[in-house]
Design a protein that fits this description.
Distance between the termini: 31 Å
Radius of gyration: 17 Å
Helix content: 40-55%
Number of domains: 1
Structural class: alpha/beta
Number of strands: 7
CATH class: Alpha Beta
Number of helices: 9
CATH superfamily: Vaccinia Virus protein VP39
CATH architecture: 3-Layer(aba) Sandwich
Order of helices and strands: HHEHEHEEHEHHEHHE
Largest sheet: 7 strands, mixed
CATH topology: Rossmann fold
Strand order of the largest sheet: 3-2-1-4-5-7-6
Shape: globular
Amino acid sequence: MIDKIPSRQRELFDAIHSEYASHYYDAYATAYRERFLHSALFSGLDLGGKYVAEIMCGDGPLTAHILGSFEFAINDGYEISPIACDAYTEKTGRPAQALDITVNPLPANNYDVIAVSGGLHHVAHHLTATFDNIHRALKPSGLLVAFEPNSRYALNAVRKLWYRVDRYFDQENEAALDAVAITEMVADKFELQDVTYGGGPAFFLVYNSLIFRVPYWMKRVYARPLIQIERIWNSLPTPYPHGYFVARWQKK
């Protein structure tokens, strides 16, 4: 375990882990994740027998999906929070290492795919170092697949304010991201293969119920109809109505 993990983010996530897990890993958030996020992240990919890392892994939802969907896939987890690393191993049976992705190097030339679900926006001001680390860790032509909050969202100014005042966020490090701007920033190392946008009412009130302090009984009432509405919402053609993007980059 790496000892010199920046205390601010580690302590924040350790402190909220229990609340975070109760909202983001309940049955309704899991259903949302499987229907909209995992299906987009891994569409057309065969990860059977591939060596995959889930970075900023939390309790390992991507790893659980990969191990349950692709035969002989192998996963490792990386997360800044030691508490989350323990939960990852307990839930997936795979090892997780506590490290700061912006500072501590991943094993070089080691992974076919690196996957991240809502993690890169936690290091929004350290993306160059993070993508350098990911690039070194991927095998030739390896893939980075990522789901992140979309800064082109029409109400992103409200989200910025929320990041500033809500105790669940570290405003000094977190910000929504722009897949196109990231692609331009890392053009010497990665090629964008695909980007899609999604995220309407269910993204905020079902998947992100923690942020809105939604009690579980209320979430149980509205989750299913909002998830049905989300299918229509996600067909809107521009980035602006959508709270997140899913992108796939290939190592050059």
